[in-house]
Protein 1
Amino acid sequence: MRSVLPGSDPRPPGREPVVQVSGLIKRYGARTAVDGLDLEAHAGITAVLGPNGAGKTTTVETCEGYRKPDAGRVRVLGLDPVTQGDGLRPRVGVMLQSGGVYSGARADEMLRHVAKLHADPLDVPALIERLGLGSCGRTTYRRLSGGQQQRLALAMAVVGRPELVFLDEPTAGLDPQARRATWDLVRDLRTDGVSVILTTHHMDEAEQLADDVAIIDAGRVIAQGSPEELCRGGAENTLRFTGRPGLDVASLLKALPADSAAVEPAPGVYRVSGVIDPQLLATVTSWCAQNGVMPDSIAVERHTLEDVFLELTGKELRA
Ligand SMILES: Nc1ncnc2c1ncn2[C@@H]1O[C@H](COP(=O)(O)OP(=O)(O)OP(=O)(O)O)[C@@H](O)[C@H]1O
């Protein structure tokens, strides 16, 4: 396997789960933030999604060893983050949203300092270049832009060549270029055999990057699978066509398989839902032919991860 990160040798992917959480409960006073959560993450990139307050950060911070579970079992790289933290810390990189950096430190000094804490760090100047921080190496942390601070936090998380990195909203507040540079770096981590657990509110980010997605709501994992599996299984796809308004939808419905639906949500817009396969497409076009209907457009609309997410977690804002 080619190594894509500066100074890094690719690691062969392990077969054991990198994270195993079962029956995790975490309370803050009377509030139960995590409520019997089960999660297994394997080598590759796992995205953890969920509405605000769902318990993502609490779960991830428990895996990082920053929080002690009230109940349940947590193993990261096979180790207990609380009782075996000393063995785990050198093998895991953590990117915190708040950065965790002394505000008067210069970016390159900070990164060099963190690199020295590790036995076999990545090449610091190359990493600085790779993340587009070359022009601000001498700038103090407090004077870096929000996006530069984010990228420095990411560099600090990966400089020790961890086996696993936790990235908490790694692209929050980044401009599109910096976002894509971060995505490229995360993909390179995977290519080099580093596993990544990332929390994000960006569905496109999860769709682009993740091998596996876990959706958390009210302190539990409510769905998990690859983006394709979730999009396939979570919601039906639709076939949409446009034509003259007022077509006989009831007659179209009769021609379709039993568990399909056909509606005209707006004049001249027709939506057929159910199992959208070549046979159904043929049925719709032959119904059009029999009824003298020439569609202006016809398209299969696939559900995105965002559709699935909203369907599973609801569309209303959480308190
Ligand atoms: N230190 C704390 N003290 C008290 N309550 C907390 C604390 N941290 C989190 N909570 C509460 O626990 C619940 C879960 O919070 P958590 O930060 O884990 O969710 P999240 O899914 O990461 O949310 P977000 O997407 O908004 O970051 C929320 O109701 C939150 O208010």
Protein 2
Amino acid sequence: MGISLGPNQYGKSEVRLVTVRREGAVHHLRDLTVSTALRGDLTGTHLTGDNSAVLATDTQKNTVYAFAKQQDIGEIEDFALRLGRRFVHTQEKITTARITIAEHGWDRIPVDGVPHDHAFSRTGGETRTTAVTVRENRAWIVSGVDGLVVLKSTGSEFHGFPQDEYTTLAETDDRILATAVTARWRYQGEDGIDWAGSHHEIRRTMLETFATKHSLSLQQTLYSMGEAVLRARPDVAEVRLSLPNKHHFLVDLSPFGLENSGEVYYAADRPYGLIEGSAVRDEAEEPGPAWTGAVL
Ligand SMILES: O=c1[nH]c(=O)c2[nH]c(=O)[nH]c2[nH]1
């Protein structure tokens, strides 16, 4: 019975690449998920473990990051072409490369109607929520947003934390701060509230505060956002926020003789810090059953 190797390919999937191009105070953000798949004469590695034709998937990933630094990414089609040609034209046994790229869109956060220099919100994916609890003749309303993804490419520091024998995190006075806001706010009162207007203003207040508040920790940003909502909306008694710290790590490009001074980042998806907390009005009505059974 003859057995032979069928179709095969290999590569690095879902390389998360975020770049920040700085034009004075104005930052330009790109956010891509890049996958590579190479085909060619790869019988050696499959049949005998001879890896002489196998450009490591780790090398493929590094190529993505190095290319992002060396040249403006441009259109994703151009970036994919540059990568594909590199692999096919430098690797004798590789005949075909398929590069797939998904670009994630970001809008500048408007602050007083003006697009912010370095604070962005991700397009799409956001939902508006409400949970209404009715008991006898009363009602409690908790509304919110899920999946409001925001990022600021500067204006965030983190330092002064305890150093023990397991601490390796470097202190920083300039980092990317990114999170997906899950927010819930509890109204005081049940009727006569402009729900749409309230949602709009709370969302705008959270976004503007995220953009403009210089951050010394995500915890500080969380409280500032909640506090700003309570100041803006007398009909809200309490705001709860759950903020994952979506870490962006500077890619070490020094092995390739390239300096990375805050341009090319790896967007990690897990593990992530999860910062949760609430801001409560001193004279707030009792929550009653408003939060009972709620996730936040
Ligand atoms: O804003 C932050 N808060 C933390 O508690 C924390 N912990 C950490 O490792 N990085 C950060 N960043």
